[in-house]
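Researcher: Re-running this chain for the archive, since the previous output was lost when a drive failed. Same request as before.
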Amino acid sequence: MTPIVSLNHISFAYPGNHRVALRDLSVDIPTACVSALLGPNGSGKTTLLHVILGILTAQQGVVQLDGRPQASYSRRQLSQLIGLVPQDEHLTFEFTVLDYVLLGRAPYLRALEMPGPADHRTAWEALQTAGISHLAGRPLASLSGGERQLAIVARALAQQPRILLLDEPTAHLDLANRARILHLMRDLAAQNVTVVFTTHDPAAAAAVADYVILLRQGEAVAAGASAKVLTSTALSETYGIPVLVHYLEGKPVILSP
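Model: Regenerated structure tokens:
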């Protein structure tokens, strides 16, 4: 698998916090696959996403994106290359879903330029990909939790990123919306989008990920193809409790106390 993201000896600590969030972490993330950053709360998953995106700058180490140092990209170029779906977004303005998704076109617009017909077409395509085009005229604040999460995904897709980062995308979703998000991630990877998502749930990683990076206390416990990484030994070491992995019809089933 060819990496589109390479992290070399990355270390990061938040100012004023003596605990290191990421410690000498070196991993590659393959192109056009679904990769899971899997680990317990506080293991550095969200911090790692923000380092990849460039929101946070590692105190040590080098981030390579598509064969180039991250530092060689402008902020505009990074916004065209990478989209982020956070766990939640707090907006102070009242947007319709379509207006909100059009915000994803900002990296392609000049200062004060309004979205044109091509931008509207891209936004509609993003809504259709996310399966929520019927909600285009609804106020964003009126959406359910699952619908709102899909709107956030659509906004990121409107950026037309080659790399899509999702932070705990299935947290607090019901089974139907969880399934929709996981299915959408698989569809995007089939369209040559590199999908990277964080989760503390091994079952979510087992359901959709081609590649898994296990994180614990800011370090990579293991990284590789999901079938090789999602083992009882590796998961037990990562979570500090006994975890059993069984295979049913070729798919891993995760069991824990």
